[in-house]
Amino acid sequence: MIELEQVSYRIGEHWLVHNIDVKVEEGVLCSFIGPNGAGKSTLLRLISGELLPTTGEVRVFGKPIQSYPPKELACIRAYLQQKRDINFPFTSLEVALFGRYPHLNGTKETVNDVSIAKSALQRVEADIFEERLYPTLSGGEASRVDFARILTQAPDLFLLDEPTNHLDPRHQVQILNLCKTMCSRGKTVITAIHNLNLASMCADQLLLLKDGVSVACGPPQTVLTLELLSDAYNIPFDVLRHPDGHLWVMPTVDFS
């Protein structure tokens, strides 16, 4: 279980997140939603251990995040950042192999490590350019390689900041289906995502944030309401029910 208890983070006099309480069970896909600057990425960084809370406590699988040695933490959680620039001339396969680093104990990658990386690239349909240099890839191609890297890391907790960025609709669905598959195998996935309809389709749990504060937390049906969304985003919404049972969310805008 991932637990945040009264978690706050401040820079100077500005609170980026304030008094957040949330629990995410193992095997659950939880998505953080909310407008720009709501605190989604900050929360992911706090759960990853990159940041330590100003107040409160983050517990990952029953232990405070700061109690994990760096190597152990790298083996149990993977963090896919929103900005992922690699400017050195590594191939896509080499970038995917970065995910094996916590497991190597200072040794060179084995044939098995390479096989794991190749399999991860294949799962995101990036094996066709495994020998291409990463800086030559399109944004969507690079995003798929980045996702292959965290698959190669083989953690129990996946922290994904805008994992569908730059992806076309088919690959967005593919990545989120992989997330659901990992959850079905007992892994925990936490994403920050702006596409509310994708969140409605795939997430078991939503945390809606505004100005660093939790507005609502629960299943999509209880969070994606007209009142909560309109207040959080400061724009009116229509919320419809899709034939498959999921909620369909659209801002109500007159472009005339």
How does this structure look, described?
- With 256 residues, the chain is of the alpha/beta class.
- It is built from nine helices and twelve strands.
- It has a six-stranded mixed β-sheet with strand order 6-7-8-3-9-10, sandwiched between helices. A four-stranded antiparallel β-sheet has the order 2-1-4-5, with helices on one face.
Question: How many β-strand runs?
Answer: 12
Q: How many H/I helical runs?
A: 9
Measured by DSSP, the beta-strand proportion falls in: 25-35%
Q: Tell me, rounded to a whole number, the average pLDDT.
A: 94
Report a brief summary of the structure.
By secondary structure, the protein is α/β, with parallel strands linked by helices. The protein is 33% helix and 27% strand.
Comma- or semicolon-separated keywords:
about 35% helix, 4-stranded antiparallel β-sheet, 9 helices, alpha/beta, globular, about 260 residues
